Amino acid sequence: MTEFLLGAAGFILLTVTVGLVRILAGPGNIDRTAAAQLLGTGGIAALLLVAGATGARGAEDVALGLALLAAFASVAFVNSVEQRPSDNAERADP
Questions:
Q1: Residue 36, CA distances (Å) to 10, 21, 60, 84, 93 in order
Q2: What are φ and ψ of residue 92, in 5° steps?
Q3: In-domain check, residue 11
Q4: In a domain, 86, yes or no
């Protein structure tokens, strides 16, 4: 079972590195943010799998901290995005 969990963690880390390409060459900020969320989620999953396989103490606490940071980063990004002028024009009452 340990080998399976470590293999799954390695596969998740491989997919996370592919997502890193999207962060570096993403066409827009929204794509980069989605890829950053993928990195955070994949990192948490890999950390929990490795902790389950090896019995590392405190790894669950680190994963929980990363999950909280990822949620706050998403909220901060959404709050920092400026509305496009076309969005305001569509919402204006005639």
A1: 18, 11, 20, 23, 37
A2: -70, 140
A3: yes
A4: no
